[in-house]
Amino acid sequence: MQPLVKDAENPTAEPKPSAEVTPAAPPPARKGVPRLSAERLQGLAMALVSLSVGIGLWHIATAINLDFYINFSNVPAPWKVFSAFFAHIQTEIFWTHIGVSMRRILISYSIAVVLGITIGLMMGRSRIARAFVMPYIEVIRPIPAVAWIPLAILMWPTEESSIIYITFLGALFPIVLNTLHGVEQTPEVLVRAVQSLGASRVAVFLHVVIPAALPSIAAGLAIGMGVSWFSLLAGEIISGQYGIGYFTWNAYSLINYQDIVVGMLVIGGLGTASTAAVKLATSPMLKWQKRAR
User: Fold this and answer.
1) Where does the UniProt annotation locate this protein (predicted)?
2) Within this chain, do residues 283 and 138 fall inside the same structural domain, yes or no?
3) For residue 282, with 0-12 CB atoms within 10 Å meaning exposed, 13-18 middle and 19 or more buried, which class applies?
4) What whole-number distance in Å separates Cα of residue 62 and Cα of residue 251?
5) What pLDDT is stored for residue 32 in this prediction?
6) CA 186, CA 128: separation in Å to the nearest integer?
7) 200 phi/psi in degrees, rounded to 5
8) 46, 172, 175, 213: which sits with the fewest CB atoms below 10 Å from its CB?
């Protein structure tokens, strides 16, 4: 609204509106992208510093042949390991080992995702299904992957199928239990509110239960990927002919210390990359969490 100003020469005249004063524009809000980029760069820098410190301590321990409770006299120096790694990546057989392990992970993990999420959702919404399936989970879940190897070899027709089976078991249980936990944590008030509006059981399941359980499901998928690598390597060490686990165990059999560490580092890198890929694939389903914050 414009303020009114009286004319000094003609006091009887009606007040005239004064010139409109434009308020100062507020300072532009800072966008979140640069800040997030700075945080990511800071985190990356800290990770590089941390890794550099670890490699430096590793080098010092091997240089002085540290033997204080932990013996580093037979541990290869970092430069020897990196030299062996760069030599291996130029060979075809090394990439064959990596490709075989990745294929086994892809097959077994995909089966575990489908069955694990399905079983977890059923157990979370049905007391009968939970009472029927939970005893099997509680009995089989604590059995380590190594203990399954003899029986898996007897059960399955080929060593390849037995390795995939062992890897599948490792990924299955974290996915099932985290999915079950997510379904159980669904707020009952939301379910009743949707039901009061006339939603069917299928609609409640699709639009309330599953979205509420997605954070736990995503966590289970990430954990299952890590456990699947552990189970895969156990199978490859005992009964495999190819794979990064077999490569590492074969290096130990040949007393090739550099290749042992190369295999360990490659396993760690592949596990980290695959877990990051799972998190990246599930992040679009969890955008509502960022908006809620």
Assistant:
1) Cell membrane
2) yes
3) middle
4) 20
5) 46
6) 19
7) -80, 175
8) 46
3-class secondary structure for 196-263? Answer: HCCCCHHHHHHHHHHHHHHHHHHHHHHHHHHHHHHHHHHHHHHHCCCCHHHHHHHHHHCCCHHHHHHH
Domain count, the chain: 2
Residue written as token pair 């939603």: 199
CA distances from 265 to 72, 161, 261, 268, 269 (A): 17, 26, 6, 5, 6
Please write the tens of the pLDDT for every residue from 3-54. 555 555 555 555 555 555 555 555 555 554 445 578 778 888 888 999 899 9
**Do 118 and 214 belong together in one domain?**
yes
Which domain, by its residues, includes 186? Answer: 77-292
Nearest alpha carbon to residue 245 among 256, 254, 237, 257: 237
Same structural domain for residues 122 and 261? Answer: yes
Are 183 and 213 a contacting pair, CB within 8 Å?
A: yes
Q: Give the CATH number, domain containing residue 278.
A: 1.10.3720.10
Residue-wise pLDDT tens digits, 172-226? 999 999 999 998 888 878 878 887 887 777 888 888 888 888 999 999 999 999 9
Q: What are phi and psi of 209, to 5 degrees?
A: -70, -50
Last residue of a domain, one of 75, 104, 139: 75
How many Å apart are CA 212 and CA 288, to the nearest integer?
Answer: 11
Q: Which of 43, 75, 107 is the last residue of a domain?
A: 75
Tens digit of pLDDT for each residue in 51-60?
A: 899 999 988 9
Both 60 and 83 in a single domain? no
Q: Quick check: 138 pLDDT over 80?
A: yes
CB-based contact 174:227 (threshold 8 Å):
yes
